[in-house]
Amino acid sequence: MFNSSPSASTLFFSADRDHDVAGGSSRPFRGGGVGGVGDGSNGSCAERPLEFAPAEKVAVGLALAAVTAVTVIGNALVVVAVCVVKKLRQPSNYLLVSLAAADLSVALGVMPFAIATDLTGGKWLFGEAFCNVFIGMDVMCCTASIMTLCVISVDSTLPVSEDRLIC
Asked: In the CATH scheme, what is the code of domain 54-156?
């Protein structure tokens, strides 16, 4: 009738536990609980931010900056190519330009601030007002990119479906 084993909340979320014992081995507890309950978080996120050594910060910063730069350059080239080359100005390529523009907005409006936040151990340095703007931009730009991918997949599927209906 009563379960004598400890509940999941006492096993993983106990404030006085430093280690989680699983399978007979002891490993450091890395969160996974509710924010602010014994996991050292600030109450808004269950994950602990990564702490980097100075040399690691430089390496991670350079790698993330390179990814951002490649994203900006690649998507800008797509937009410019479709705008400049007359043979590329076709309705199906307009969807690719829309996707490139959405990804460009992520690369310019979201990625730099996310990188800075990651490198400072999860500390937001840009003020509370811009934090709300950033969250809005993040959601809006990523959703635009995802929805454009959905439209591209429907656009490429419709001609195949129409051919099957005719046969």
From this structure: 1.20.1070.10
